[in-house]
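## Example pair
The file below holds two records. Each record gives the amino-acid sequence first, followed by its structure token line.
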Amino acid sequence: MGVGIPKQYLLLCGKTILEHTLHKISQVENLSGIVLVLDANDQYWPTLNCNSIPNLHVVNGGASRAQSVKNGLSYIAKQIANNTANNTGQDQEVKVLVHDAARPCVNVKNIETLVASCEQANQGGILAAPVADTVKRAVEQGEAPAVQATVDRSLLWLAHTPQYFELHCLLNALNHCEQAGLEVTDEASAIEQTGGQVLLVADGKDNIKITLPEDMLVAEAILANQLKQGT
């Protein structure tokens, strides 16, 4: 992003990206809690006031996305094990939603549609958007790449978050990929590499991931419209 602070602390519509994202996730129905995974040396989180978000837990992240997600899942698994041991909970199948802090424009109703669709299909799944643009496969050619072929886009989707899976299934998949040295770009890719199937649930294009400076302008416009409509 070319700024001196982590992008989740940049301001959009008067609040940080992270605050918008946490507010959105906290509105999801039947959510037991939120685990926020942060850098161990994060100096900005203590300056925010997110006390109004119920059942919010903060844990240290790792060197990669996969390791950070593993840390969050391991925390949940430990809490469940402790509750079961103390007879304050039951040993039951627990489902988790993994979401990027840099996606503050996610639609809460779409998250709930993801959960309902996965439960009906009895499998994990992700929010995703079908590819609309013409897709080119490139080949290296001197100083700049050139088109090698046009790719059939009819079966291509852009992976979004949240991604919804059974806790131990996802944790085991991430552990397997780590031990095997397999690349994990999102949670679905870990499930795929262990033979699992992942449901695609259509999402809006407004659920953008803030990556580049120009994304801030788009996100600001989307959030302003959402706040105006109360969504």
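Second record, same layout:
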Amino acid sequence: MLPYAAAALLSLFFGMFIGQVQAEDLQKEQRIISIGSSVTEIVYALEAQDRIVAVDTTSLYPPEAQKLPNVGYMRALSAEGVLASNPTHILMMEGSGPQTAVDVLKAASIKLTEVKEVYSPEGILEKIDVVGNALQLPEETKALKAKVKADLDGALAYAQEQAKPLKVVFVISEGGGKPLVAGRETGAHAVIGLAGATNVFANLRGYKPVSKEALIAAAPDVIMMMSRPGSSGQSEILKEPGFNLTPAGLNGNLIVMDGVYLLGFGPRTAEAIRDLSDRFVKIAAKTTPKS
């Protein structure tokens, strides 16, 4: 019985060893295209960036990602452009498109993993799970999830401790006479709430245009916008008709932040929540919110 038991144990050992070698070889052979800012940030946070062969235009962080070949904007992909990088695996944020391009990529003999977008702390941890599993990095994934969860728990507690009853409008664009603002089920709506304030257009769903009259009636204490290259003149929005008659316009309360950092819902979101919460506190200190 002993020789049999020894042989079985030896077989098990070699099986585990061979499995580990095969997994390591597979990791080394992976050619990843990362589509979506938070997906790319997670790959870097897992220290698997050496497997990335191309990214999309939203993958701006870390800065090294901008040096990689680019397949275009995540919502305007060309299937031919993506396949030209000869990937073995595509990590794609939910909402990438157009659908015709996604259908072609799904039909190709290449593994494709779609990462669901949920604007919540739980959604961030799920993203890490999906990306980590795709990269076959169980220990690294477990460690990153633990760190990010601790960071998020701390940031949420911090924001709630100093939460102020501020009313906020997040403006995506102001052209065409009707500003485009964020309603519920958007990253902007979620991060405003996580940082301890209220989105005045939570009655809307998604991004919707609103009239000057609706803007004035909503009476936001704060106007928020995403920073863009060459957008140093964004403070002019406070003087625009409609905006100039809100508490935000009258008190000069404008917050402009990097969109990928603020709305990415990835490893840096805890930092963004703390940052935004601090900005709300500063504004609240000089503003008496309207009820």
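Notes on the second record: The two ends are 82 Å apart (CA to CA). The chain is about 45% helix and 15% strand.
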